[in-house]
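> @MW can you paste both from yesterday?
MW: sure, first one:
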Amino acid sequence: MKTTMKKTDTPEIRCSQSELRAAQEGRTITGYAAKFNCWSDPIMGWFKEKIDSRAFEGTDMSDVIMCFNHSIDNILARSSSGTLKLSIDEIGLRFEFEVPNTTAGNDMLELVRRGDISKCSFKFRVDSDEWRYADKENGLEFDERTILHISKLHDVSLVVHPAYKDTEASIRELEERKADHFKNISDDGCVESESRKRTVELLHLKNR
């Protein structure tokens, strides 16, 4: 069973599945902020997701910053100033920027060239998504989410650890949406994994 939903209110952060590349000559760093139709690893132990190839059609990318660990104190480039270039191709959302001649910029360039920093993540807001929930009939181990449209891209970030930290608010919202979907069904056959149970319990405890 598939369910299409509209708009989440909380920005989400996800790790990119691509590696960064820094030119050995010059100061250009390139990579993909997102790749289309590639399943993620299980998020918080209970769902996987992929991005539809049309998800960035009409997305607001007018003021996207390139930063380090999602910190606005470490801006490396910006789309509104023309220093961050974003483009869509058959693979996904590609970025390119010239590293600024600043202390932070020079440090980032050296660390990317050395391979100490090799991943990125991105912060975005979803306008529409589709879910296939694990149940007894389909036998899925994890819920599956397809992101159909991203309304706004906030930033692309070089990261030390491409983990799903800072996602608790968005995960809580997704869990509440699923509960709303099933609230009028007496026997939905939903598969409840132990890791998913622990995640929900932890979020409820933190929200008290």
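MW: second:
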Amino acid sequence: MNAFVLGATGYVGRAVVEQLAAAGDGVVAHVRPDSPRLQQWQERFEGFGATTDASPFDRDVLRDRFAALQIDAVFALLGTTRERGGDYMAVDYGLTRVALDAALEQERPPRFIYLSSLGAGSPGRGAYLEARTRFEADLLASGLNGVIARPSFITGPGRDQVRVGERIAGAVTDVGLAPLAWIGLGGRRDRLRSIDNQQLAAGLIAVARQPGDGVSIHYADTLRPKG
């Protein structure tokens, strides 16, 4: 697989880059051209065995980069947070839409792997989920071969921003879901349980490798490695 990872500097993105490189895949880690840590990220990703790309978020530029690099899988792992004062529609939807448009213009369109969220897919659930619901609809209508991943809470060590609330919510949710297995709803429990960034990265890569047509939707139960 020759992959281009958007959102490579994020919590899940770093794990995806590292795991792809470790598996011997060609991997291009995208870093914002205005990132104050651009050199640090270049050194880190090159240490994994990946290539760094700092192209601007421009449809024509990304279109040409995808073509030149012969990309066959785009991992769209972009996202902002309320703590950063981010605009979900501008970042989570808008920048990802730029990448989708670039992918659609390829002679051989790449597979498009989109990291969404549990709860997306239905309108009217707040700005965060609204942006992801809108992009999901675009991807489903695009005709591309792709993946929509809808995990619940993403946990684990090593975050740049320690999200105490999310970590607590994930732990509480996992404990509260445990009794579902006792009443025959283990599948429901596994879908809603938290997943750590390394597990999620492995799951995204695994489903990206699976053959298929159209767009498949996956939750934590099918993204979490078995065993």
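> thanks! Residues 75 and 113 are 5 Å apart (CA to CA).
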